[in-house]
Design a protein that fits this description.
The chain is α+β, with helices and mostly antiparallel strands and 71 residues long. The chain is built from two helices and two strands; from the N terminus they run H-E-E-H. Helices cover 54% and strands 14% of the residues. A two-stranded antiparallel ribbon has the order 1-2.
């Protein structure tokens, strides 16, 4: 029984590390994105380099420049 638990623990650890590595390499996005939320609960997400997102990105960039903690 102890051997099965050790094997299960080792497989869980390896699976967690693999999932973390997958997220770090493929799922994490460093590209800016604009998300617009509406009163009815709907949302639109646009890439930051889209023409429709340009006004929002300009405002966000200006706001973040004024925050001394943001990097």
């Amino acid at each position: 029984m102890k051997r099965v638990l050790k094997l299960f623990g080792a497989l869980t650890l390896l699976g967690s590390l693999a999932a973390g590595g997958y997220y770090f390499l493929f799922m994490r996005s460093r590209q800016p994105q604009v998300e617009l939320y509406f009163d009815d609960g709907s949302m639109i997400a646009m890439p930051g380099d889209a023409a429709e997102a340009a006004p929002f990105m300009a405002v966000a960039t200006e706001v973040l420049r004024g925050v001394p903690i943001a990097s």
